[in-house]
Protein 1
Amino acid sequence: MSTLTKPKFDEELTISNDPRNNKDTPKTTVYDTKDLNLWYGDTHALKDINLSIYEKEVTAIIGPSGCGKSTYLKTLNRMVELVPSVRTSGMITYKGKSVLDKSFKVEDLRTKVGMVFQKPNPFPKSIYDNIAYGPKIHGIRNKKTLDEIVEKSLRGASIWDEVKDRLKENAYGLSGGQQQRICIARCLAIEPDVILMDEPTSALDPKSTLRVEELIHELKKEYSIIIVTHNMQQAARISDRTAFFLNGEVIEFDETDKIFTTPTDSRTEDYISGRFG
Ligand SMILES: Nc1ncnc2c1ncn2[C@@H]1O[C@H](COP(=O)(O)OP(=O)(O)OP(=O)(O)O)[C@@H](O)[C@H]1O
């Protein structure tokens, strides 16, 4: 069987006392998905999805094109509602609250759940204003508070040192990799619990990809991260758990090491060893 080994970041070797590494410690879930189905008109895009997303972990979603990865991610923050033909059944809870229930205000959900997209999409504004935008919308006007949020968010996204002397410059003047970290900083500025990432490095060069992967590894100390990726080495490198989607179904969901070394389902094995997809 061809499998991928999971290279360790240096730091992982030093956190063996972390209670999250103790298999006997019950983990807290942020999202629970039960029997979720989703249709775009007649297209049955998600079928009986059951998944738990654990706090302060990186969960990777892998699978071939069109298997429903992005749809699932966009269901978690209700972006999928923007498509008029969408229908759902089943249940998603975020910290016990029913996400798909219309009484859960989408604005409240989005202050807790940030999203980073495949293509870096900074606003055509200064670096500073990109980060301050969300907090301003939430009513923060005090310049000193905004300055602090901007610095903290840019530091959190590992880009402060690169941009601290050019905060008034347009974010479009940055490289693609820097723009993506600005988008991550913009997401951190609203102090979310969860960060959804839809192929966040697929438009980046290998060096920028590594920076973002290292950043994700840092961010999971504070945030729960769900990442859709086509890059199986990336999933193996950075995630704690992996869900393998195929034709709208979750075929297997387990600890990443298990998925990439001893998968239970032969379809998972075929996919991770490159036999299809
Ligand atoms: N807005 C939409 N309207 C109708 N069908 C859609 C829409 N978006 C996605 N679909 C369909 O839903 C299914 C799942 O698509 P989705 O984009 O979630 O897959 P994916 O696994 O993220 O694919 P990729 O890896 O190519 O991004 C596909 O059959 C797709 O054609």
Note: Residues 1-20 have pLDDT under 50 and may be disordered.
Protein 2
Amino acid sequence: MSDPVIIKICGIKTKALLDASIAAGADMVGFVHFARSPRHVDIDTVGELISQARGRVESCVLLVNPDNTLVAQVAALGPDWIQLHGPETPHRVATIRDEAGIAIIKACPIGGPEDVVAVKGFADVADRILLDAKPPRQAERPGGLGHSFDWSLLKGLDPDLPFMLSGGLTPETVGEAVRSVRPMGVDVSSGVETAPGVKDAALISAFVRAVRDAG
Ligand SMILES: O=C(O)c1ccccc1NCC(=O)[C@H](O)[C@H](O)COP(=O)(O)O
């Protein structure tokens, strides 16, 4: 039997929704620290949420092209993962992983076959890859936009690559995504919200149920 699909709920801002994600059966939760995001939480709140998650669910702090000071600040809070969701190069990802001593998820935007080729460059420097839709050029943030991408592009992907799928997943679409792409995990933000940055406990439950039914 294959391993259960890992479920990550990204963009949690409150203890109530952290508790709701755990109650629903999520495996990981993500906290976004990026000022232009409607899911942004300040560093003190990130620290409190990590403490509340510890031992109950894996925590992940999402950063965009962070400098060394921010990496050190976040690493000191003791999350299980740091997710790099910006234009970080493989060399920079390796440096951050060494400096932080924390497992790294590298988000890779997918818009065409060349982006799938570029994913290989992160295979040895990240602990996990997150495949996400490539944002439009004018987008004000590099992720969490609720956009999906053409999953058939992933046919050429190394089957041994530890990757999670994200980008516009919803309780309605995630079952088909799990069956057709067969990722090790799935990640959602917009698809379990009623408005940008406003998570909904019932949608989180529906998402988790849909993944478990498919897996
Ligand atoms: O959520 C944000 O606002 C955000 C800001 C900057 C970089 C990344 C961001 N989110 C990434 C995610 O929440 C997920 O990892 C993923 O992209 C899924 O997002 P969605 O398409 O909204 O489900």
Note: The radius of gyration is 16 Å.
